[in-house]
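Dear colleagues,

For the upcoming journal club I promised to circulate an example of a predicted protein-ligand complex. I picked one with zinc ion because it came up in last month's discussion. The inputs are reproduced below in full, followed by the predicted structure.
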Amino acid sequence: MKIKALVMHEKNGPYCMEDVELDEPKDNEVLVRNVASGICHTDEFGRSQGVPIALPLVLGHEGAGIVERVGANVDDLKPGDHVGITYAFDGTCPACQAHEPYYCENFNQINFGGVATDGTTRLHQDGHDVSMFFGQSSFATYSVANAASV
Ligand SMILES: [Zn+2]
């Protein structure tokens, strides 16, 4: 689906409001219509490429909104739910299995790697991939995120 997002095209560059293509949620994911998003130094860290993330990139990691659609395997969220979106985690490493996802052994790769937990991005523009941030890229009208992070 076509959405509006704040796209970052260059290190320390401006946030450019542009059309972006957002994939449908996969089986374990949720589509959220963002109503608000926080902004903090971690977004600035991404904007300044404190960790190199492939450009273009859509930042934003504190999304809040309303669930629009859920993937086939999501049974604890439904359209209309009011939600916040937090960081991404793999759910499978020893830390996640111990119910400490904030210590996820793949935290940096998943949240700063530009892709979702399956290694692909949900964002595209003009036929090219656009990097995600924290598994949500909430500086956009819509986000697709793992249900476990919503
Ligand atoms: Zn983990």
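Two points we might discuss: Residues 91 and 97 are 7 Å apart (CA to CA). The domain at 2-149 is CATH 3.90.180.10 (Quinone Oxidoreductase; Chain A, domain 1).

See you all on Thursday,
B. R.
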